[in-house]
Amino acid sequence: MSSLPLSVGSNLWLMAGDQSLAGRGRIELLERIEETGSIRQAALAMGMSYRAAWGAVELMTERSGVPLVIRSTGGRGGGGAKLSDTGKRLIQAFHQLEAQHA
Questions:
Q1: DSSP letters of 62-97?
Q2: 7-54 residue pLDDT tens
Q3: Residues 6+ apart with CB under 8 A from 54
């Protein structure tokens, strides 16, 4: 047997019924959308494509049944995105559960 110390690792996922809603990556995406005000900028910061980020947002919205991100279309001031109150609560709930899980 190895002399290396043993440890336990796990990943936390929030579920919507029997489907995954959000884990660390999707929560980080929501946090970055809130920080940057943009799905595109959040995707770039995470090294992912806009299409993948948009797909993750759509999937979470579909599975939660409520909008988590509110988009505004472009125009003179440009478009943007921000989290809905539900999106903000989802992040808070994840962090609380993550702390308890640890």
A1: HHHSS-SEEEE--STT--EEEE-HHHHHHHHHHHHH
A2: 877 889 999 999 999 999 999 999 999 999 999 999 999 999 999 999
A3: 39, 43
